[in-house]
UniProtKB/TrEMBL annotation, chain A:
Residues 3-83 form the Carrier domain. It comes from Tropicimonas omnivorans. The keyword RNA-binding does not apply. It comes from the Bacteria. It holds the Pfam family PP-binding. This is Acyl carrier protein. PROSITE patterns: CARRIER, PHOSPHOPANTETHEINE. Keywords: Phosphopantetheine, Phosphoprotein. The keyword Phosphoprotein applies.
From TrEMBL, chain B:
InterPro entries: Beta-ketoacyl_synthase (IPR000794), Ketoacyl_synth_AS (IPR018201), Ketoacyl_synth_C (IPR014031), Ketoacyl_synth_N (IPR014030), PKS_Beta-ketoAc_synthase_dom (IPR020841), Thiolase-like (IPR016039). It comes from Tropicimonas omnivorans. It comes from the Bacteria. Proposed to synthesize NOD factor fatty acyl chain. Involved in the synthesis of a highly unsaturated fatty acid moiety, which forms part of a lipo-oligosaccharide that is responsible for host specificity. It is found in: Cell inner membrane. This is Nodulation protein E. Belongs to the thiolase-like superfamily. Beta-ketoacyl-ACP synthases family. The lineage of its organism: Bacteria, Pseudomonadati, Pseudomonadota, Alphaproteobacteria, Rhodobacterales.
Length: 89, 402
C-alpha cells in the first residue's frame, strides 16, 4: 500500500507537470515541477478521485492548510495519513 | 467618427469549418441540419440540429487546453485564429493595449454545466473537476482569445439570447467608430447542442422535429445549430495604411428593447430598430439590397419580421431580398448573428445572395422576396443583418460593400 500511494501520487503529479513519473523526485517542490495554482487544484482533484479521500485544502491559504504541499514527499505523507484516517483498515 | 471595416473572418459551423466552405455551402443552398449525435438522444423529442460534425478537438488543442476549453470556447478560438490570420495583424505595443474582444454567447459553457450536473445529480458524486467554473463562464471564449493574441483592451461578453452576437459586434463597431480602439475582435459562439440544452428548448414547444423552413406557410419551428463566427473590425485608415484586404464596411448599428413580452416578438420594436439602423448608417431604405433575416422558422417570428420590414421600407420592401440562412446552419442562438454576417459579406463582396432553403409554400403573411431555395446573383451595395431576441432585445447591423 505504501509503495502504491507513492507511485500513484508521483504519476498524478507527473501528468500535471507533463513529465515521466520516473522524473518526479520526492524532494522536488511544485515550483521545481512547474505546477501552477490551477495545476495544483487539478492535482488535488485527481488525488481525491484516485484514493477516494477528501483533501482539506484551501487555495487562499495553502500554508495554513492541513495538507502540506511543500514537496512531493510531504504530499505523499499527507495522502498516506488521509488514506489511513478516512479508510481505516 | 472613424469608419470601420472588416479585415478578417473565421467560422466553424454545421456548414463548414472555415469561411470558404461555409460560403460555398450557402451559395449551393446546402443543408447542414441532420440527425444529432448527443448523449441520451433517445430521450429527446427533437433529434435534429445543425451540429458541427467531423470535428476532433485533439487536432487543434493539447490535452491541457481541452481540459480548460468548453466546446463554445474551442469554437471561439478556432474562428478567431482564422479571422486574425486573415487580417494579418499582430498585437504588440499600443495596438495590443487598445485592441480587445467583444463576443456574444447566450449560454456559454452549456456542455460543461450539463456534464457536471450529471456528475453530481445523476451519478451522485460529491466532487467536480476544479476547472468547472473557468470552463463554463460566458466570458471564457473572449478571455482565451485575449490571452492567445495579447489583446489587452476592452474585452467582455454580451448575453442577449439570440441577439448576443449582433449586440457584441455592434459594440465592437462603436468602440472602433468612436476612436477608442483601432481594432476589435468580435463575433459570437454557441455550443448548446447537449441533452440539457436541447431539452430546455423542447419545453417551449417552438422546435421543429423535421426541418427549419423560414417564411414557408408549412413552417413548424426552429432548429438549433452550434458554432462560431469571429471577425476583425478595424479602423479604415489603419487598414488601408497597411494594405489590408477589406471584406466589407460596417456602417450602422441600432439596438432597442420592446419592453413588452419575454418571448413574443414585436412588429413595432423590430421596425423601429431597422429604421434606427438606417438612420445610424445615414442611408435611405432604397439603398438596401439584402437583409439577412432573423428568420427563425417559427410562426411568430417570421410574420412579425416580414411585417416590420414592410412597415420600414414601404413599397420598396418588394424590391429587396430577405433570406434566412438558419434554414441551412440552424439557429446558432448567441452566435447566430455572427454566422449570418458571413452571408451579408458574401452578398456584398461576391454578389451572391444566400437562399432560404426548405421553402415549400408561400405564406401571404410573409409576402417578400425570401430568395426561396436557390441562391441568386445580384449586385448588393448595402446589407442588413437582423436579430430579434427573446426578452424583446433587438439588434440590427448595416454593412456596405468595400
Amino acid at each position: 500500500m505504501t509503495d502504491d500511494i507513492e507511485t500513484r501520487v508521483a504519476e498524478i503529479i507527473a501528468e500535471q507537470a507533463v513529465l515521466e513519473p520516473g522524473d518526479v523526485r520526492m524532494d522536488m517542490t511544485l515550483e521545481d515541477l512547474g505546477i501552477d495554482s490551477l495545476g495544483l487544484v487539478e492535482s488535488i482533484f485527481a488525488i481525491e478521485e484516485a484514493f477516494d479521500i477528501q483533501v482539506p485544502f484551501n487555495a487562499n491559504e495553502p500554508q495554513n492548510s492541513a495538507f502540506d504541499i511543500s514537496s512531493v514527499a510531504s504530499i505523499v505523507a499527507a495522502v498516506r495519513q488521509l488514506v489511513a484516517q478516512q479508510h481505516p483498515a | 467618427m472613424k469608419r470601420v471595416v472588416i479585415t478578417g473572418a473565421g467560422t466553424i459551423n454545421a456548414l463548414g469549418q472555415d469561411v470558404p466552405s461555409t460560403l460555398s455551402a450557402m451559395a449551393e443552398g446546402r443543408c447542414g441540419i441532420g440527425p444529432i449525435n448527443v448523449r441520451d438522444v433517445e430521450r429527446l423529442n427533437v433529434r435534429i440540429g445543425g451540429q458541427v460534425t467531423e470535428y476532433d478537438p485533439d487536432e487543434y488543442f493539447n490535452r491541457q487546453q481541452i481540459a480548460l476549453y468548453d466546446r463554445f470556447t474551442q469554437f471561439s478560438l478556432l474562428a478567431a485564429r482564422q479571422a486574425i490570420g486573415q487580417s494579418g495583424l499582430t498585437f504588440i505595443g499600443d495596438l495590443s493595449m487598445e485592441a480587445g474582444v467583444v463576443l456574444g454567447t447566450a449560454g456559454g459553457g452549456v456542455n460543461t454545466w450539463d456534464e457536471n450536473y450529471r456528475t453530481v445529480y445523476e451519478e451522485g458524486k460529491n466532487r467536480v473537476h476544479p476547472f468547472v467554473v473557468p470552463k463554463l463562464m460566458n466570458n471564457a471564449g473572449a478571455s482565451h482569445i485575449s490571452m492567445e493574441y495579447n489583446l489587452r483592451g476592452p474585452t467582455y461578453t454580451v448575453a442577449t439570447a439570440c441577439s448576443s452576437s449582433n449586440h457584441a459586434m455592434g459594440q465592437a463597431f462603436h468602440l472602433v467608430r468612436s476612436g477608442a480602439s483601432r481594432v476589435m475582435v468580435t463575433g459570437g459562439s454557441e455550443a448548446m447542442l447537449s441533452f440539457g440544452g436541447i431539452k430546455a428548448w423542447e419545453g417551449l414547444r417552438v422546435m421543429s422535429r423535421d426541418a427549419c423552413r423560414p417564411f414557408s406557410a408549412n413552417r413548424n419551428g426552429m432548429v438549433q445549430g452550434e458554432g462560431a463566427a469571429i471577425f476583425v473590425f478595424e479602423e479604415m485608415e489603419h487598414a488601408r495604411a497597411r494594405g489590408a484586404e477589406i471584406l466589407a464596411e460596417v456602417i450602422g448599428f441600432a439596438m432597442t428593447s420592446d419592453a413588452t413580452d419575454i418571448v413574443m416578438p414585436s412588429r413595432k420594436g423590430a421596425a423601429q430598430t431597422i429604421a434606427a439602423c438606417l438612420r445610424d448608417a445615414r442611408i435611405s431604405g432604397d439603398e438596401v439590397g439584402y437583409i439577412n433575416a432573423h428568420g427563425t422558422g417559427t410562426s411568430a417570428n417570421d410574420k412579425t419580421e416580414c411585417a416590420a420590414v414592410a412597415d420600414t421600407f414601404g413599397p420598396y420592401a418588394d424590391n429587396l431580398m430577405i433570406s434566412s440562412t438558419k434554414s441551412m446552419h440552424g439557429h446558432v442562438i448567441g452566435g447566430t448573428g455572427a454566422v449570418e454576417l458571413l452571408a451579408c459579406i458574401m452578398a456584398l463582396k461576391d454578389g451572391i445572395v444566400a437562399p432560404t432553403i426548405g421553402y415549400e409554400e408561400p405564406d401571404p403573411e410573409c409576402a417578400l422576396d425570401v430568395v426561396p431555395n436557390e441562391a441568386r446573383e445580384a449586385k448588393i451595395d448595402v446589407a442588413l443583418s437582423n436579430a430579434f431576441a427573446f426578452g424583446g432585445l433587438n439588434a440590427v447591423l448595416a454593412l456596405r460593400s468595400a
